[in-house]
Amino acid sequence: METSVTLLLLVAFVAANLPFVSNRVAGFKQVARKHFGWHLLELVALFLLLGLLARLLEGRLAPLHAQNWQFYVTTVALFLVFAFPGFVARYFWKRRSS
To answer: What sections of the protein cross the membrane (predicted)?
Structure first.
């Protein structure tokens, strides 16, 4: 069980940084410069997909537990913390022109 939680956290970290890696919208459509709104929309979509995956895994291991709003606020905050390295690399690191 511990390895599944670790694996889920690793997948969450990768998913949170995925929108900032390329200029493709949702991994399909290439754009010259992706607007911040697209990054935000992709983060929300990936968060929902990851939540669905976690819910499915929980249902396979144990009975589902009802969650209150505090749980969802905490998971959104954790997902945004996971997205911080990709955000910093995309918006704050300036590439040198050679």
So the answer is: 37-57, 69-93
Residue 34 tokens, joined: 């992706």
Task: Say how far apart CA 61 and CA 93 lie, in whole Å.
Answer: 42
* Site of tokens 């511990």: 2
From the centroid of its chain, how far is CA 56? 17
Q: What is the pLDDT of residues 49-77, one digit of tens each?
A: 999 988 988 888 888 888 999 999 999 99
With residue 29 as reference, give the H or E element that holds it: strand 29-30
Q: Helices 2-17 and 36-61 sit at what angle, rounded to 10 degrees?
A: 170
pTM for this structure? 0.83
Kind plus residue range of the DSSP H or E element containing 85 = helix 69-91
